[in-house]
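User: Fold this, then the next.

Assistant: Folding the first:
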Amino acid sequence: MTATFATPLFVAGSCPQLSVIVAGTGNVGIEFLRLFRRQQQRLAGRLDLLLAGVFNSRQALLNSALDSDRCADLLAQSPGYELADLITYLQQLPAPKVLVDITPSQEFARLYPVFVAAGCHLISANKQGVTLPMPEYHAIKTALQQRDLYWLSNTTCGAGIPVQRVLQELRESGDQIRRVSGVFSGTLSWLLCRYDGSKPFSEFVLEAQALGYTEPDPRDDLSGKDVQRKLLVLARELHLPLELSDIALTPLLPAGLEQGNWSEFWQHREQLDHIMHKHVQAAQAANNVLRYAASLTLTEHTVIAEVKLVAVPPEDPLAALAPCENMFVIESEWYKDSPLVLKGPGAGREVTAGGLHADLAVLANATMAAF
């Protein structure tokens, strides 16, 4: 079935307008919508912030003046839609307008050039767009620059922690970044802050799964691939010509255990438990703690990027990490004696939705300044 969409209607007023179209209605998407009215009220009298669309992979609700409080219910009653109809709607929607991508889809991220051609700014929580192969990434950036459009993606790494914004400000003010390191996974943060060798590591994994801290298959977390992708996000922020394959990855998961389903893995979990027990014993003997860390080291001629398990001493900033927290340690020309440390919740629908609204606030301010 093809959905029928309302034609955008706008009435000229004394305030600039910004239309927001939201892609993705999972936990973060629903929380973003819950906070939307508060953002509208904050900007009232200075900017008309309009919710002009909400859609997921199955259904679409596209109208120039949606009520964010009713969207979830209305969307559930909406018919299916065709991509061509969505694109036509976006093309007809008056500028300025922004597409907020809260999906996990690489296929959807590859549609960014189409959305940019329709005149949309982009706000991404989806890491897949920022980490596309360099030719595709550069093509999106070039198209945005040609149309004077923004691409804000602070929540792709660190959820609500403004690490990308800090890196931007340091670079733009003349500082030279030497190294960025830290713990970028709330799941692996929880596991390694809790794991003390008192029981098998796999039992901590099972506990984290029961608490909802892991992916449905926890091996997706233990693979380290999500951390690898987040490090590439920061490398792209620093304008480094890296691809995912340039980042050395040592997963927590022993080779071969990624094969088959979860129940098959569980029958062989002793391999993981044995290796992790050896790691924690060695760390404790040296008065160190285990962390699963990413690092990006820049020298005059080389870039070294890696993701791996490390043992750090008590005085290391990573030793002070709390379960589920992310930490970013920035060493630069200005912060060479005492690194700049950013720490906070690295996941969760509230902080991620809040980070998206922080990006939206940046775009709102730019819209008002240009009016």
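Now the next one, as you asked:
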Amino acid sequence: MNLTHLLALIIYFSMGTVIAYVSRRMGVKSASDYYVAGGRMGAILAAGTYAATTYSAFMMVGLVGLTYQTGVGAFGFELVYLVSTVTILSTVGFKIWKLARIGKWISPSQMIGDLYGSKTLAVTVAALYLFAMIPYTVAQIQGLGVVFQVSGLEYVHGVILGASIIVLWIVLAGIWSVASTDLYQGILMLVGGLIFLSWTASTLTQGADVSRVFETLGSQGFLGLTSFWSVQVFLAYTIPWVFFAITNPQVVSRLYVHRDVHAYKRSVVLFSAYGFMYTVIAISIGLFARMLAIGGLIPADLPRDSVTPILLKQMTPALSAIVSVSIMAAAISTANSIILSVSSSIFKDILNREEKSLRAAFTINLVLTLIASGLAILRLGYIVDLSVLTSVLLLPLAPVTLLGVWRHGKLSRVSGTAAVVAILVGAGIGVYGFLSYGAAKTFTMSYLSLPISAWILISSTAILLLGVLVDEFKRKGEK
């Protein structure tokens, strides 16, 4: 392994572990403390953990490559996500935070079950999380293995080391250690991104005629919407991310942690600023990479996920080490947050453990990490494919959550049953598409000019509305 990379990794791991250990002083005496900080978290820490959890290694690897291949249209896709997330956080998210303080929720599946008064629904949601999120976690750990390979480490050793960091930082103090290291990693991600951007910009200005490259870039359509971004493809990419803030458990659970109204509102502002900066950085790197390709400094036909590794190999060891560590940080922050949130659902809604059973929480986290890292070592192709569909499989939770929050306290058992059916049908459509056509084709395919994500939303919403109508009919009949 490159000595510079090894030194950077040791510093990263050591500082993170110290930060995670120090966070134990916040006190973890119950499951509520362990999973959602007992609702005692301040704005900066809450914003940091939300940002680092939301923005995974996809940004500096996937989004950079997507922009390199498809142009500035990728910025529109990612900007739609950011605007919709901030909108949800400012409206529905705030209502969820207030309800969480009353319901004392520690898991998103518990929240949905309580909104509908249905234990069966809570278990269904928890099972969906387990099915949909574990492949996504595995993909994050596999990404760690690949990035470690750039540093000269064996893939398997990278997976083991990454998994060890994940489980250690979770076990030390639960959400407190995860949030503290998330803030630390979020800063690393931003610094690494800025260094990456500066290097690509300086390399471009040294090796090519910038004005001519920009002209060529524009003439080839990379500064507008390329043929890749058809209406159907744009909808396929954006619909799952529009509802990301209320479908993915690792971010939904972050809505429960704020200590007061001021902390909540300030954290939304801080996240908005961070998200916009990080998005602009990733998109700019992707465009600069395409400029480098036009200038003949890197290949013009690189696979999407190969762009960042190729650029990292051309950097000096010191810069490459910093950027690589920042990408590792993005993957680790997302992976440990997912494991913690899925663990909370298993703890509360499947095993139905008591608040004081922290040993059970530790065990669940360890088992989930071992399963994810074991699957990552096996490098099963369908795991990577299935992780592509994670956001699509979780889409039925969008109307279920929105309806539950909107009609809180007015939903009967019929609505709860309809919600279960809506989730099973919506996720079933996604699984059927995966088995029939494969993940990539299912994600972008359209039927009657609408992508599968839109049909999942339509079908699950229709089933839910039918349940509400039956509720209203029964209520009027009883009068």
